[in-house]
Structures are given as structure tokens and as C-alpha cells.
Write a structure and sequence with these properties.
It contains ten helices and seven strands. It has 231 residues and is of the alpha/beta class. The protein is globular and about 55 Å long.
């Protein structure tokens, strides 16, 4: 299990970040196109405080959130209290679910960051039914300005290597441009402060005015084969 210092250490700021992300619903539209979930069984891997669970629960047949960090599990369970959504403790490479028990396995900026996440891909394919889809939503570091801040903060991170890894694993790729919109500059500074080093966070805040910034995402999808097809 690899810690996620942003949400683990600053869950309230991360909640503000979640609210600020993709205010025009571009990612949701792409997900609905690539892997609709109405009437289906959905697993959200690395669900954190459960921010995306209600979105799926409104239309899915069932929703399970999987999260390794107990304080976040508690928050997620509180968020979906009174609903049929389940939040279980587990990791991406050891999902607490039966074989062929899900139609959609969703992970957003959690665990699936490229080379090294093979065990999680194997687990996702195990719990998917034939025809089911694993969908990985991650930040696109090729899209500025946010991607430039990522590359500045993580000089050894090569987004093209990540894309080649997912392509080699049989994933398709859809790029999505979104807009983050913060309540005010103070909230923007707080969010950038948990995502980047102090030097890069200060640089990022100087690079845009107002309360909105463009952020690119990659949506990687892989379908479990049906019938006589081979994985």
C-alpha cells in the first residue's frame, strides 16, 4: 500500500479540491460515453472520502467503494450513510470482492499511475464480468499549465512512458480538457499547496489570475473480453 499524502493528511482541503475539479462535467460525459453505469455493478477503487460514490449510486444497481486508509473509510461511510453503497477496506492489488462480480471498475487519480500498477490491473480484470470495463482517470501532464507544474515538481515523471505502459496493457485512451474553479484564491493556494512542493505551488499560483485553471486528464479504458475472446 502506497500512502496518498494529499488526501491522507489534508482530507478537508482535498474535499475542496474535489469540488473544484471539472466544474463543467467533461469527465462525467466521457465516462457515460465509454462505460455507462446505469443498472450495473460499480466498484470505485481508492474511493477516498467517497466523493464520487453518490454519482454512481444514483443510477447503478450496486456500488462498492474500496479504500485502504481507515480514516477515509469512516468519512466515506458517513457520506453514503442510509444508502445501499458499501465501503470496504482493501487495496487495488487485493480487492475484497469475488471473481466476476462487477461491470465497471473505476479509479480516479488513485494507484494506477503507470509502470508498477500491473497487479491492480490484474485484480480489476479478475473482478470484472466478461464485457466489463476498467476505467482509469488520471491527470494528463502533457497539458499546461497544470501539467507543466507536475513536470516541474516531478522531473523524473515521463507522461509518455505512462501512456505507452497503458497502451501495452491493452487500454484505449481518451484525452479530456477540464476547468477547475475554486471558491477564492485562498482555496486555490491551499489546494496547490497539498499537490505540489512549496516552491512549485507558489510558482503555480503566480501563473494564473482569478480562480479558474485548465487541467487535462487521460481516461484509460480496457474491456474484459467476452465469449471465446482471450484476454
Amino acid at each position: 500500500m502506497i500512502a496518498s499524502p494529499n488526501i491522507w493528511n489534508w482530507p478537508d482541503v482535498y474535499e475542496a479540491e474535489n469540488r473544484a475539479q471539472d466544474v463543467t462535467g467533461e469527465i462525467e460525459a466521457v465516462l457515460r460515453d465509454l462505460t455507462p453505469w446505469a443498472g450495473r455493478d460499480v466498484v470505485d477503487v481508492g474511493c477516498g472520502t467517497g466523493f464520487h460514490l453518490p454519482l454512481f449510486a444514483r443510477e447503478a444497481r450496486s456500488v462498492v467503494g474500496v479504500e485502504p486508509h481507515p480514516p477515509l473509510i469512516e468519512r466515506a461511510r458517513h457520506r453514503v450513510a442510509g444508502s445501499a453503497v458499501r465501503v470496504l477496506r482493501g487495496t487495488a492489488d487485493r480487492l475484497p470482492l469475488e471473481d466476476c462480480s462487477a461491470d465497471v471498475v473505476h479509479a480516479r487519480t488513485a494507484y494506477f499511475f503507470g509502470p508498477g500498477c500491473g497487479p491492480g490491473i490484474t485484480e480489476a480484470m479478475r473482478v470484472l464480468r466478461p464485457g466489463g470495463v476498467v476505467v482509469v482517470v488520471d491527470l494528463d501532464a502533457t497539458v499546461d499549465p497544470y501539467g507543466g507544474w507536475m513536470r516541474r515538481d516531478l522531473p523524473h515523471y515521463d507522461p509518455l512512458t505512462v501512456e505507452r505502459f497503458f497502451a501495452a496493457q491493452g487500454f484505449d485512451l481518451r484525452r479530456v480538457r477540464t476547468r477547475w474553479s475554486f471558491a477564492d484564491r485562498e482555496e486555490a493556494a491551499a489546494v496547490l499547496g497539498i499537490e505540489f512542493s512549496p516552491r512549485v505551488a507558489a510558482h503555480a499560483l503566480r501563473q494564473f489570475t482569478g480562480t479558474s485553471v485548465e487541467v487535462g486528464y487521460r481516461v484509460h479504458t480496457r474491456r474484459r473480453p467476452q465469449g471465446l475472446e482471450t484476454a
